[in-house]
Amino acid sequence: MSVTAALDDRRHASVPIRGTDVAKRFSERGKAVVDALRGISLEVGRGEVVGLVGPDGAGKTTLIRCIAGLLRPSAGTISVLGLDAVRDTLAVRSRIGYMPQKFGLYQDLTVQENLDLYADLQGVPVAERPARYARLMKMTNLAPFTRRLAGRLSGGMKQKLGLSCALIKSPELLLLDEPTVGVDPVSRRELWQIVGELVSQDQIGVLVSTAYLDEAERCDRVLVMFDGQVVDRGSPVSFRERLVGHVDQVHCDDQRIARRIHSRACDLSLVADATIRSGRVRIVRATADAAARRTLADTFGVALEPAAPTFEDAFMHMADARRASNEDPGHHPVVGGSASHPVDAGRVVVRVRDLLKRFGDFEAVSGVSFDVCAGEVFGLLGPNGAGKSTTFRMLCGLLAVSGGEVRVAGHDLRKTSARARARLGYMAQQFSLYSQLSVQENLDFFGRAYGLTGRRLRDRVRWAFEHFGLGQRRNAPAGTLPGGYKQRLAMAAAMLHEPDLLFLDEPTSGVDPLARREFWQRINDFAEGGVTVIVTTHFMEEAEYCDRMLIMAHGRPLALGTPAEIRALARDDVHADPSIEDAFVALAEGRARPIDVTAASGDHA
Questions:
Q1: In angstroms, rounded to a whole number, what is the distance separating the alpha carbons of residues 253 and 469?
Q2: C-alpha pair distances (Å), 370 with each of 281, 297, 534, 597
Q3: Cβ distance 283 to 185 under 8 Å?
Q4: N or C: which end of the chain has fewer CB within 10 A?
């Protein structure tokens, strides 16, 4: 090998990832189906974290799988640690750590057995394993759980075990594909602390895709992907600087007024994005024109204050510009027209007192009490394993109650659960419709299951196609839909019979930021129409849309109150203007005093 070639190899090896004009075309029987990647070039250096963000179907997972040697690019080259990702696949895999979206765990093996299996697969010498295991278990706080089956771990613990398995051979490069989807804020922060420690101590390179745009702020550089292409790249600071002068906020003392302003803002062409944050409606304008700010202030009849932009603001501004130019027509505007329910604001539709659920000798839920009133959006929050999903399933009548009082829509769930279920809609955490049936067939089936027939069924199915933008996918098998469209279909099925009460269990887990925005616009629409909503979520910013929320831990209530009351729990010298996530973490870590939930629930009795 010449001196020049040797130096070139050394230079390539110093850059853990170098991709040039990478393309991936998926085909079937020789016929092209989709161009998943189109001409992507990227670099990831040692000691840096590079983030991939973009909507569902942008190509993030495909790109990571090509770099990991799990997919062969259709064109272009990928160098990983100086090796060719196609020609030297086995050598590449032996030197990198890869954590797929579903953790890659074996559910019927214990934590220790998963570690041993990955150590065997990676060829880790037996003599080196005890020290390696000890470091990983200390880093992830999994030491007390080595004998527990992986399938019985909480989402956050599975996440940390998956990361431990990816790190079993001290990799020189770490690939993380949406590692924090479906886990609570405490677990998310712990994962990023682990990644930060690896980068600073071992100087490894990290490429991470994420559905949480706030996590992009933790990256050194970010690549924004749409439709199989990298459309922009830079540091989080560079993205924020472009949005100076575009972002305003509106202070709202009343949560429902905030939701109404938010809903109106989402319908305006002057607005690129609107969210609710820390009791304020946050508005990203399409332009930095001062006249646009005055127009919005006049429209809402309130004062607008300038706000510092975030990376999320920049991403949503970019997405709005693509929609406006019809470059990215995949997301459908929310159409009004939900059925109107008469609202008696003081009427209690869900009453829970001293709720108890036992599994053998284990109390999964104990001492939970709260009320939910008509037309209210009520949130159930808590760390993984807190008991919120168990509570949720009992309220839906899907899980037997061990003790306490539960009344839903005027019916005692312990005696007449079938009657109560007829008045509620339910959207499961995992897609639970029939994957092999078409969109039309699923809607017809669930409509009939809810007792709809004839013209009434046809009218409601037509409404679902119009309201959820499913018309063009009428005949597509449900299992082939992108994540955001699966979410739309599941929610449409839950609302076909016009329920008084809608239960949503982690409805936005695993879908992109654009789909989450659409989802909450629909929820606001239904709530304004008088539907009562109970929702569980791990996206703390989504809790800002709730009128009230209950935060649980270890099966017991920690705090019950409005978003403002919950945020106030974390207010101190460090957090003068805390977020819901700040309060959630403070409660989970014992740094905030819980609200007297017994007194709080009594206020709404």
A1: 34
A2: 27, 38, 12, 8
A3: no
A4: N
Position 47 confidence tier, pLDDT thresholds 50, 70, 90:
very high
Neighbours of 473 (CB within 10 A): 20
Count the alpha carbons within 13 Å of 354 in the hemisphere toward its beta carbon. Answer: 3
Quote the CA–CA distance of 56 and 39 in Å, as a whole number: 19
Residues 6+ apart with CB under 8 A from 442: 433, 434, 478, 489, 493
DSSP class per residue in 181-202:
TT--HHHHHHHHHHHHHHHHHH
Q: Which amino acid is at 280?
A: R
pLDDT average, residue stretch 391-402? 89
Question: What's the chain's length in residues?
Answer: 605
The DSSP 8-state label assigned to residue 338 in this structure reads: P
Q: Give 309's Cβ-side CA count (13 Å radius).
A: 24
Q: How far apart are CA 209 and CA 211, in angstroms?
A: 7
Tell me how far apart the alpha carbons of residues 35 and 85 are, in angstroms, rounded to a whole number: 20
Q: How many CA atoms lie within 13 A of 166 on its CB side?
A: 29
Banded pLDDT at 243 (limits 50, 70, 90): very high
**H or E element: which one contains 600?**
helix 597-602
Q: Taking a C-beta distance cutoff of 8 angstroms, is the pair 219, 52 a contact?
A: no
- Measured from the Cβ of residue 253, the count of other Cβ atoms closer than 10 Å reads 8
Give per-residue pLDDT as tens, 553-565. Answer: 889 998 999 998 9
Which residues pair with residue 99 across a beta bridge?
176
Angle separating helix axes 155-166 and 185-202, nearest 10 degrees: 20
Q: Which residue has tokens 């490429």? A: 207
Predicted pLDDT of residue 379: 93
AA identity, residue 374: A
In this prediction the pTM is 0.82
Phi-psi region of 335 (alpha: psi -120 to 50; beta: other; left: phi over 0): beta
DSSP letter assigned to residue 119: H
Q: Which residue type occupies 504?
A: L
Q: Give the C-alpha distances (Å, rounded to integers) separating 340 from 276, 375, 525, 527.
A: 24, 11, 10, 9
CA distances 406 to 195, 420, 440, 595, Å, are 43, 11, 35, 22
438's enclosing H/E stretch is none
Whole-angstrom Cα distance, residue 194 to residue 473?
Answer: 42
Segment 559-590, tens digit of pLDDT: 999 998 999 998 888 888 888 888 888 887 77
Query: For residue 511, what pLDDT is reported?
Result: 74
Give the pairing of strands 532-536 and 501-505. parallel
CB-based contact 526:335 (threshold 8 Å): no
**Are residues 78 and 85 in contact, defined by beta-carbon separation less than 8 angstroms?**
yes
CA distances from 41 to 19, 196, 230 (A): 5, 25, 8
265 alpha-carbon distance from chain centroid: 23
| Percent helix, percent strand, percent coil in the chain, to nearest 5 | 40, 25, 35
Tell me, letter by letter, the H, E, C secondary structure of 304-372. Answer: CEECCCCHHHHHHHHHHHHHHCCCCCCCCCCCCCCCCCCCCCCCEEEEEEEEEEEECCEEEEEEEEEEE
Could you tell me what percent of the chain has a pLDDT over 70? 90
The arithmetic mean of pLDDT across residues 78-96, rounded, is 93
- Per-residue CA distances from 247 to 61, 244, 271, 273, 603 (Å): 31, 7, 10, 9, 37
Q: Is the dihedral of CA 198, 203, 207, 211 positive or negative?
A: positive
Secondary element (H or E) of residue 546: none
